[in-house]
Design a protein that fits this description.
The protein is about 50% helix and about 10% strand. Strands 2-1-3 form a three-stranded antiparallel beta sheet, with no helix packed on it. It folds into two domains: about 50 residues, no CATH class; about 45 residues. About 10% of the residues are buried. It contains three helices and three strands, in the order ββαβαα. By secondary structure, it is mainly alpha-helical. The longest helix is centred in the C-terminal third of the chain and has 32 residues. The protein binds zinc ion (2 copies). This is C2H2-type domain-containing protein.
Amino acid sequence: MLRCSTFGCDGLPNKQCSNCERILLCEGCIPNHNTKHLKENTTCILDEIKIKLPAGRLARLRENIEKSISNIEDQKKRIMSEALKMNCQDDIMVTSAFE
Ligand SMILES: [Zn+2]
Ligand SMILES: [Zn+2]
């Protein structure tokens, strides 16, 4: 059976927070969770409970990998433009180091 994700709470969950790894929340814990988000200045996104499917996990994994790759690409671009800005003779070396 599904259980509220709050530590020490055995309540039957009726919402999940999409902003917190889809943790499950029971009626009684929703206000506390909202307060936590207010304190952290983040948004609480309450959704209907959807059971995680392996396909969803895979898609998320792929998403994470794509995100990491684009982060690396961004870094590469940043380093390249920094090298250009400094009119650095080594920019050819920077380029080849990433290939
Ligand atoms: Zn949350
Ligand atoms: Zn609870």
